[in-house]
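pls design
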């Protein structure tokens, strides 16, 4: 393997450290990973939910909330329709739980058995026949054009919440909430489906408790600039800025009627900071005969945030953690103050939010969403809440998986909790997991948890059997598809594991992989990609052949009738010839985040390692390098033969246990007892017999 450590300017490291209040080592890691802007850095250094984006910045959110509240008032029957994977299961449980707490008549449904992905016409018709009037999709729906049309014919309204890539033609729904919609003003496009469901639940809670829901307010400020004054106003709706006005005026040169100010403020509630001062300045600009009625925020905010008492906006900006990352002027400080004040006064982040974030964290991790921007807050906060007080259903699974009472990280969730929940969907009964997450009776939850875990064991068995079929088929197909992709298809491939098999194939062959299950007259496939290749391009070329299709840039799926299979294969062969993959050598280079001197290799390093959690997509675990560490002990370990090496490394002040997986064959050749070695590694925690021990996981090493 190649070792690579990016050179970074020392001035940049010092600038990040002083500007954002972090230590030099953290600043160097941020710089080496290209995280140098305040808007990105805040999500590595902050945990508070107030750093989450406003849900009402999502298009269609207020329409969705209004329709749900109307359904609540009228006692309408509502259906939440989700998907069968972890993201869909957690989204369904999250939204159902939120609606049930509002006292609504809620049912839920997911695809079962060999049902195709997404909402079906049959599900719409059966719900309408039971006098249902509102369907809310979660983690699906953006491609359900025919189903939305059928719902409209039957008098059933649809709200679509989804995060998959929209196609050119959108369903005709009452509201579509999706951060990937074209022309969306939402600042982050990569929420999971359960992230979008959480936003809807949070927006509903805000609507029910806030006096500001559905109302516009204006935040007003004036400031001097040279011989003139700037009048700046932000118009907010549901605490989200929807418009701004800025006028630069020289006193005596224009009357207020000559400006856009009266029209902008007409009919609005107006708030300002230090109203006596604002009125005094306003009189200087337009004369004492002009007055605007404003409410003074400063005393109210000081009651909730005492540190602001008696301070100007500029002074507050110097003290504000939010302003540290966003820059901006006095008006931006006023907007942040107002939003923070409302959240604090109205207690907008409550126990329900933290419980919902547990589910949102699971779906975000399971759906391999990039752990950047607000996904970091969702996952960090969700995991912290999970460790503190897991919600029913999750608590039962954690207990049975022997994770109760111990530290949990994103890797633990990805490798242990998510596969168990996912197994219910893969084995054709995702409803078991939803029922577990919604069940109130402890005895029934215990039974459901056992069933879900049992389905995971069955899934493992089926997966191993299917791999024996899939691997040789894929290897044989490599030449057929110009060496650029592999395909495994057949009626002996279990549909529930096509995604898992495709992921294993890309690890095995290092090219995009397609795994297809035949069931009667329908072929259902999972497409996975790597090395920068977007599979959407291939699927778009075949869209006319599909019953349905959709997904993400590097993970997608489809179904088609067997009548179209041969045509699909021909197009696939032609498309494969045009696939251009990124360099394989890049994937074989170990990117090092920092070189550590011996005195840094102490248990205290976990303070930094934990700060960069959660790890996963777009934020891999920190990789360190150290030189001249002495191997003072070696043991060979492994259940079926000694495949792995356990080392003890002397760093001077500490002796560290270190695991070097699949390295038994390198002993005596690449390293030996009492050798001094340079190594690339990451830090980990080993949990055994109720004891947590820090350890090193070796990625590569060589004699010094």
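designed seq:
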């Amino acid at each position: 393997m190649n070792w690579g450590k990016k050179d970074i300017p020392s001035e940049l490291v010092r600038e990040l450290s002083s500007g954002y209040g972090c230590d030099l080592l953290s600043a160097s890691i941020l710089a080496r990973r290209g995280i140098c802007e305040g808007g990105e850095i805040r999500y590595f250094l902050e945990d508070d939910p107030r750093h989450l984006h406003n849900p009402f910045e999502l298009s269609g959110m207020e329409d969705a909330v209004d329709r749900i509240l109307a359904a609540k008032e009228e006692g309408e029957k509502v259906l939440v329709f989700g998907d069968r994977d972890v993201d869909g299961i957690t989204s369904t449980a999250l939204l159902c739980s939120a609606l049930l707490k509002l006292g609504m008549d809620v049912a839920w449904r997911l695809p079962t058995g060999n049902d195709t992905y997404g909402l079906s016409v049959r599900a719409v018709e059966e719900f309408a026949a039971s006098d249902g009037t509102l369907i809310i999709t979660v983690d699906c729906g953006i491609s359900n054009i025919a189903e939305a049309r059928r719902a409209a014919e039957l008098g059933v309204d649809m709200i679509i919440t989804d995060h998959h890539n929209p196609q050119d033609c959108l369903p005709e729904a009452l509201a579509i909430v999706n951060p990937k919609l074209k022309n969306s003003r939402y600042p982050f496009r990569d929420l999971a489906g359960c992230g979008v469901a959480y936003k809807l639940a949070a927006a509903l809670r805000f609507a029910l408790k806030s006096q500001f829901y559905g109302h516009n307010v204006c935040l007003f400020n004036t400031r001097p600039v040279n011989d003139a004054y700037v009048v700046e106003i932000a118009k907010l709706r549901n605490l989200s800025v929807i418009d701004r006005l800025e006028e630069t005026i020289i006193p005596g040169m224009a009357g207020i009627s000559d400006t856009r100010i009266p029209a902008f403020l007409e009919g609005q509630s107006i708030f300002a900071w230090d109203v006596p001062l604002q009125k005094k300045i306003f009189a200087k600009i337009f004369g004492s005969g002009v007055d605007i009625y404003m409410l003074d925020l400063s005393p109210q905010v000081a009651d909730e945030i005492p540190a602001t008492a008696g301070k100007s906006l500029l002074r507050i900006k110097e003290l504000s953690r939010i302003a540290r990352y966003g820059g901006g002027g006095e008006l931006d400080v006023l907007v942040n103050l107002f939003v923070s004040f409302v959240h604090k006064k109205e207690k907008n982040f409550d126990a329900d939010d933290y419980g919902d974030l547990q589910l949102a964290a699971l779906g975000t991790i399971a759906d391999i969403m990039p752990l950047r921007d607000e996904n970091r807050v969702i996952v960090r906060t969700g995991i912290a809440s999970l460790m503190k007080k897991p919600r029913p259903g999750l608590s039962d699974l954690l207990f049975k998986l022997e994770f109760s009472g111990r530290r949990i990280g994103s890797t633990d969730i990805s490798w242990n909790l998510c596969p168990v929940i996912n197994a219910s969907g893969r084995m054709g009964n995702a409803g078991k997991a939803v029922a577990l997450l919604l069940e109130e009776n402890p005895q029934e939850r215990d039974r459901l948890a056992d069933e879900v875990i049992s389905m995971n064991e069955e899934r493992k068995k089926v997966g191993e059997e299917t791999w024996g079929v899939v691997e040789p088929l894929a290897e044989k197909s490599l030449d057929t598809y110009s060496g650029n992709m592999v395909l495994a298809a057949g009626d002996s491939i279990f549909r529930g594991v096509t995604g898992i098999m495709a992921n294993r194939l890309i690890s095995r062959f290092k090219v995009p992989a397609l795994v297809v299950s035949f069931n009667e007259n329908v072929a259902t496939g999972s497409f996975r990609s790597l090395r920068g290749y977007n599979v959407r391009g291939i699927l778009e070329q075949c869209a006319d052949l599909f019953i349905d299709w959709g997904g993400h840039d590097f993970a997608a799926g489809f179904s088609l009738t067997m009548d179209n299979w041969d045509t699909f294969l021909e197009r696939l062969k032609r498309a494969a010839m045009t696939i251009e993959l990124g360099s394989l050598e890049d994937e074989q280079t170990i990117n090092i985040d920092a070189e550590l001197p011996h005195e840094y290799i102490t248990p205290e390093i976990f303070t930094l390692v934990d700060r960069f959690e959660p790890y996963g997509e777009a934020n891999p675990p920190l990789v360190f390098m150290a030189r001249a560490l002495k191997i003072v002990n070696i043991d060979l370990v492994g259940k079926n033969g000694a495949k792995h090496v356990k080392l003890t490394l002397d760093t001077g002040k500490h002796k560290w246990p270190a695991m070097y997986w699949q390295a038994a064959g390198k002993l005596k050749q690449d390293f030996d007892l009492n050798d001094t070695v340079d190594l690339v590694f990451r830090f980990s925690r080993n949990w055994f017999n109720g004891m947590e021990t820090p350890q090193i996981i070796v990625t590569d090493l060589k004699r010094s």
